[in-house]
Amino acid sequence: MAIYVGYLAALLGMICWIPQAFQVWRTRDTKSLSLSANLLFLITVSLWLIYGLMITDWPIILANIVSVTAMIAIVAAKLKYK
């Protein structure tokens, strides 16, 4: 049962930032986004990805690969469209 909870959490973690990334790139409106908060979250999910790789936990790895990618897109948009 725990593995299903892990995969559900991974799925929700993967998809929760994708709409924000698309919205930012579509509208180019980043003025309401905090660069420092998004950088901090990028560091956080990057560390979770490293941790998942170290313990070979696929729900953590998959969720954080997608989260890191989405956060890079958001931070890049914030830097590009100041």
UniProtKB/TrEMBL annotation:
Pfam families: MtN3_slv (PF03083). The chain crosses the membrane at residues 6-25, 37-54, 60-79. It comes from the Bacteria. One of its GO terms (cellular component) is membrane. Keywords: Membrane, Transmembrane, Transmembrane helix. GO terms for molecular function: sugar transmembrane transporter activity. This is MtN3 and saliva related transmembrane protein.
